[in-house]
Amino acid sequence: MKKRYQLLFTIYCLLSAFLLLGCGGAGPGSPGSYGCEDVGLICEVTITPTYQDKNTYSVDAFRDICPDLTAEYFADHSATATLSLRLLNPNTTYQPGTVYIEKYTIEFRRSTDSIGAPPIQSDTRYKTIVLTPPSGTTINTFDTTVVFVDLIRKNKYRTDVLSGQYSSGPAYINNYTASYTFEGQSLGKAIKIFGQTNFQIGSFDYCGG
Question: What's the pTM?
Fold first, then answer.
C-alpha cells in the first residue's frame, strides 16, 4: 500500500511540473514568461522574421550576382516582435504597472535534422520597449522591430559551412530555432518574456526584391 501511495505522489508531482511549465514557468527560450503573473499580467510574444519588408523564414548567407549583373541585396535579417499583455484576472480592481523591456537576447539552436550544422553565436541587444497594461478583457499588443540574424552571423555561417567542417543540405541549407528572451521590469520585479521561431539559413535568391 505504501508503494502505491508513493507511485501516486510521484505521478502527481510530474503532472504538477508539467502544468507549471504550461503556465508561464517555461525555461529560457520556450514560449511563456517569468515574473508577469507576479504583477497580475499574462505576457506573450510572437516572432515574425522579415527581409526586404517581406515575411520570410529563409536567411540568405551568400551574396550572389543577379541576372542583371548587379549584386544581390544583402543585409541584416530582422524580425517583428509582437508583444502582448492581458490581465491575469480581468475582474481585478488592481491596476498592474507598466512593463519596461530593457534588452533582448537571441539564442540559436540547431534542429535535429541539422545537428552537424555550424553553431551560431547568441546575440544580445539593448532596446527600451514600453508596454502599458490593459484593462478588463482587453489585450494590448505592441509591434517592434528586432534583429534576427545580422551580417556578422551570416558571414560567419558562410565561412563555417564552406570550411568543410560542418554538414549542410543542398544550397548550404540548415535548419535552426531562434529563441528570444526579452528582459525588463515592472513595479520593481524582474520580467522575462520568451518566444521562438524556426528558420533556415543557406543560399537563397533575393535578386529583384
Answer: 0.84
